[in-house]
Amino acid sequence: MDIQFTEEQELLRSSVQRLLRDRYDFDVRRKIVASEDGFSRKHWAEFAELGLLAAPFAEAVGGLGGGPLSTMIIMQEFGRHLVVEPFVETVVVAGGLIEQAGSDAQKQAYIADIMAGTKLWALAWTERGSRFDLATVTTTARRDGNDYVLTGEKTAVMAAPWADYLIVSARTSGHRHDRCGVSLFVVDRRAANLDLQSFRTIDGRRAAEISLRGVRGELLGREGEGVAALEACRNRAIGALCAEAVGAIGELNDATLNYSKTRKQFGVTIGSFQVLQHRMVDMFIAHQEALSLMQHLSLSLSDDEAGISRLASGAKSKIGYAGKFVADQAVQLHGGMGMTDELNVGHYFKRISSINIQFGDPAYHVLRYAQLDAVA
């Protein structure tokens, strides 16, 4: 598959490429990751100024109406440059949930600040032992006046240390695994009785363990319909993460090919060895297959096709395995230096490894694909 981009989409892609090429090279990225914050508010403001944070949102809420295809274009370039800023967490996931499930008042109150780059968001849905199941929720929410009071624990909440607001899944009825009874709530990250323990992930980003002890939250969407909203959100997030992975895979292939043309062994470049040529052909094929599947998924998300969850799981598993294969080969072909901090190859390896476990690892999505296929 090869998408023919419109003039506006080509302009978006060239704008992102130019910005990242000029202002977000690997050395800049390393300094950002090593900083106390772990991300750059300056670059986030530049993304907002360029319109990247508004691109996926519908025109009805003040966005540019680019939808999943604009997300794909942006995330593929972000993957090439290992951008750490929380575009997926804030724009795709939280912003998408607000646009999908929020009231008109909530859309007006929150989305404008997301597009302007003044507020950051994160989604707190994972719990210990949930194993990627959106319905496995023990955090509870009880009504108290116009708001709700939340109590429970959330684990590995990506970008939470940076966030101004959290969207938290909590149970308003039913048992632990019941699909009905899960609701979504907007919570101020600095609210009373919310404890956040931040940590650094393997790819240099920030995440947190969150404890809620009677924290006040505002209902997002309808009570008890959180799982359905989260499933649609997960499909969009998978589309964005797959695009990021494809961008990273492409850069690993380029880096490995260039290295094979200069690194000499036994007096000749290693690229002249037939066995390594075959391996790099396999890496190229894996990238092309992943690219086609990513584009197919993004187009299907744009058209809101039936069976999108099945396609999303298929893409997450296939691109996940392709990413792991290419990352493994790139590190091995670079030798010991492949995992040094000074070389970008190891950083791509770590980022692909992190992407593979966000919203479900490849093994989980193979099983989910088979389950959805059985009922199709």
Automatic annotation (TrEMBL):
Domain Acyl-CoA oxidase/dehydrogenase middle: 122-209
Protein origin, superkingdom: Bacteria
InterPro entries assigned: Acyl-CoA_Oxase/DH_mid-dom, Acyl-CoA_Oxase/DH_mid-dom_sf, AcylCo_DH-like_C, AcylCo_DH/oxidase_C, AcylCoA_DH/ox_N, AcylCoA_DH/ox_N_sf, AcylCoA_DH/oxidase_NM_dom_sf
Oxidoreductase keyword on record: yes
Domain called Acyl-CoA dehydrogenase/oxidase C-terminal: residue spans: 238-364
Cross-referenced CDD domains: ACAD
SUPFAM superfamilies named in the record: Acyl-CoA dehydrogenase C-terminal domain-like (SSF47203), Acyl-CoA dehydrogenase NM domain-like (SSF56645)
Start and end residues of each Acyl-CoA dehydrogenase/oxidase N-terminal domain: 6-117
Full protein name: Acyl-CoA dehydrogenase family protein
Pfam families, per database record: Acyl-CoA_dh_1 (PF00441), Acyl-CoA_dh_M (PF02770), Acyl-CoA_dh_N (PF02771)
Membership in a protein family: Belongs to the acyl-CoA dehydrogenase family.
Lineage start: Bacteria, Pseudomonadati, Pseudomonadota, Alphaproteobacteria, Hyphomicrobiales
